[in-house]
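Objective 1.3, modelling of assemblies. Example input:
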Amino acid sequence: MSFLDYAPAPESQALLHLRPEYGLFIDGEFVAGRGEPFPTINPATEKQLALIAHANAADVDTAVTAARRAYERRWSTLSGSDRGKYLFRIARLVQERARELAVAETLDNGKPITESRDVDIPLVAAWFFYYAGWADKLDHAGLGVDPAARGVAAQVIPWNFPLLMLAWKIAPALASGNTVVLKPAETTSLTALLFAEILQQAELPAGVVNIVTGGRETGQALVGHADVDLVAFTGSTGAGRAIARAVAGTDKKIILELGGKAANIVFDDAPIDQAIEGIVNGIFFNQGHVCCAGSRLLVQESIHDEVVDRLKRRLSTLRLGDPLDKNTDIGAINSADQLKRITELSAIGEEEGAERWSPDCELPENGFWFRPTIFTNVSTSHRIARDEVFGPVLSVLTFRTPEEAIAKANNTPYGLSAGIWSDKGSRVLAVADRLRAGVIWANTFNRFDPASPFGGYKESGYGREGGRHGLAAYLRPAGSAAVAAARHAVTVESGHPVKSPAARKKAAK
Amino acid sequence: MTRLAVPKTYKLYIGGTFPRSESGRVYAVTTPGGDFLANAAQASRKDARDAVVAARSAFGGWSRATPYNRGQVLYRIAELLEGRRTQFAHEIMQSEGVPAPAAGRQVDEAIDRWVWYAGWADKYLQVAGNANPVSGPYFNLSVPEPTGVVAIIAPQSGGSLLGLVSAVAPALVSGNTVVVVADETRPLSAITLGEVLATSDVPGGVVNILTGSPAEMAPWLASHADVNAIDLLGAGDVDWVHLEIDAAETLTRVLQPESGADAAAPSLARILAFTETKTVWHTKGLL
Amino acid sequence: MTSTPVVATQASTRSRALALIGGEATDANLRRYLHGIPGIDAVGLEQRAAALGTRSIKTSSKKRAIDTIIGLIDLTTLEGADTPGKVRSLVGKALTPDPVDPGCPRVAAVCVYGDMVPYAVEALGSAHAAGRDQGVSVASVATAFPSGRASLAVKLADVADAVAAGADEIDMVIDRGAFLSGRFGQVYDEIVAVKDACRRADGSVAHLKVILETGELGTYDNVRRASWLAILAGGDFIKTSTGKMQPAATLPVTLSMIEVVRDWHRLTGAKVGVKPAGGIRTSKDAIKYLVAVAETVGDEWLTPGLFRFGASSLLNDVLMQRQKMQGGHYSGPDYVTID
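Predicted structure (tokens):
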């Protein structure tokens, strides 16, 4: 028996007590939804975890109304330091309940427990800590003295990092003085609802954060609601485009974090063992369900064979299986739909003539699984080199010169992230300068930090999340006409301020 | 006995040259009172397309010029504007029907605004960039970069030169290249600005000036996949909501129309509106 | 660990090394070769090591790991105060790590100073491996351990003395001063000479572990280069540290050495061993090393011929873990023996 046949090491589920059914979280309370409740399942077993309420347009309206009321009567009257203290409370509560949240995330999403335990949940707490400190320092955010909150933020998040994306959205929104209506992804609502319990423990004023669960139409109702002041969305480019269309002509601010097809460029002088790890982390982290995944490996032709050989050997040591097992590297694909898409695109890759390889690994009987896969002999015109697969599928392409690497890396409508591997500092910096992408990782990949802005160029969306830049979308610059209008509006009792044509003017959307 | 003047043919400015519209169309530019001033080229969608191609090909060089160099080139334009002060004032008087002192003030303001923006070229990055204190052994720096090709609908009212400068200069500061649709009814100073640019150090294609109908050209610019941002500053009278919808197709960045006295007021925000923040991580290791 | 007649092998090792570096083992040729090997990014290496350290080795895997660790230990005493009595006690511990459990495996070797070798051999008696696959081997540090500051002649005499006294394995130190000042040829030649000195009268050869003293090399790139140099020169094992200075073995350093061993195996088909030494005190730490070995170069490396722990206090922690797993309750230091 091999030492590598590690005995099962499942994380205990004992500290997680899920309710059989969850309501919507509106105005500080869990309430029934008016739509048909739907089950959320564990993608590793296909077993139901809980029943989730379905918010219809009327529920969304109730939530937005609650958020507006909370904004006008409570949240906008608080000092920045008090807002910050609520955020600090939330951060601490997340830390206290970290293991429980990690287990819930893994059950609902299918990601390995080591990822939810060591990456997702610690970053959630870090995000709240970071923005907590901003709440009473907004004068220093680069938007002039005394910038104003926008009002009610509509936030729609994806299923790949459910609670982390919630933190990315809610922390800066609250720090800036906005109230929130957030819609989690249909397949991953659980941790957002546990987070609602945390908000109750933190005694956050009712209505400051509202969570409406449901499907696509719930999100559409929220994004299209006339009384939201800004829309923050993370998800596919297709959905982001629809949101941009839907809010066109309004003065709703939008932040879109959309798809990507990142190039991970490996030069012949790269620190090779770390580059291999970076390639693996770049595309197989979180089953490749990462918008900034390094899905296009651009490797210098002279080391192509060696890199592919090392990569294959390394992939053979990856462990696919029970996401709750602490030794699992590759968990479950989040949903049957996503598995179908990955399967189809991979089949197209083969049909187009690319060479497909996966390590031998057994797939569990139930649940949604996909072997880590690499395609070699990929050309830039292949769909697997152009379309976002959003799964554990790597396309390997080659280049000969830095100029060619840059050209190929930029040859995509996306522009979210990129990786560079080289021991030569001057080249790293020069290539970083020329890549049209919002996040460049040099000799590393898939690093996230609340202090570091994240967001894309081109069709990967606009706006930045994280860091000082992450506040900008949630604030109206000081001195703008809109700020004056907004300040006036919050003193008026009756609902949403009607924006004057003057208020519509803005220096920059 | 007065000398018979030689009138100027007002053409487009695309890729550093002065073509007529490929459509062969012109339209009469008049004084507010209706007196004929000139025939301006009426640019077509194909002219707009050519302008985008020219802007794209100029982007690499202009965006990679050092900020100091870009600042100098922009400042040089202000110098040349100053030299043509009389000509601009004359054209403004004629086409806007304003008295000489007002025309002169507009030119002065336009020149001063150009200088103000020129000075930002090697500073905006310091003000808007950030060293990010991430919790790990990483160098982490965020810097704004030009977004790419910016299409602009110049203001269609107010001072024609000042409006144009207020729209174009901030986009150029960070290294974007520009396709601008000039004030339709009062395009003379825009064409003359093109002549200034042609004799300045701005590489051809960095600024491309189209005269004609915003309503005709804007949809093509808004929906153009190779346009990174569109400034609808002067598009308030056309169906700009549809332009914004068109722009959504490729996630083109949009600035909505502005009007009133403080429209396109000089601001850092206007520079940053045409930038993308890039964050670079690099490992830091002693061993 | 077997000591094989290796005269022919040694010659071929040398010619292979010279072919790889493209000429004689001069400073310049070696520098060109060693500096042509891809670099190491410290952050990435440390992250990978940390990730390997998060593997959760439980229940039956832990049981197996613990017995594996015991069988890989070079139980060590390297003190100025060592006496024949101390060495005999050490040997007793090596042979019977857990007196109440005869099923407990023996350690791989005892590691002592050269003058203590005869006492170790004597105390082992028939349990002395002496080239067999069973039993406990005697390893001796040599070459003016730990500093290595002596003339080559003295170092070689040190080695020959220990081999003659019955040492199965020689743990030599490289000349870190020469390495750091770029005299790669000197380091190379010295290892080659020590290897020659490991030859016994009957033509068999004691196994050579080359101690890099990674804590003095300053960078991971240097550790990697020194590893290649030691292997090119014919070392059977590359060993991290003397244990006489901090930092001694760390997981990232050891990982970088395992990666060299893996690459050498892919390049030549030959297998070289790795020995982290110093600073590994708990079974939890030791298990991380097993994981790093198994997931980097393969679990066939988890044999005494290819992997060792140089340690003294590690054994008792492992034994306490072992007792816990067998008895179901936590053990204490009074329930394991001191040597």
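The interface with chain B takes residues 41-44, 46, 218-220 of chain C (CB under 8 Å).
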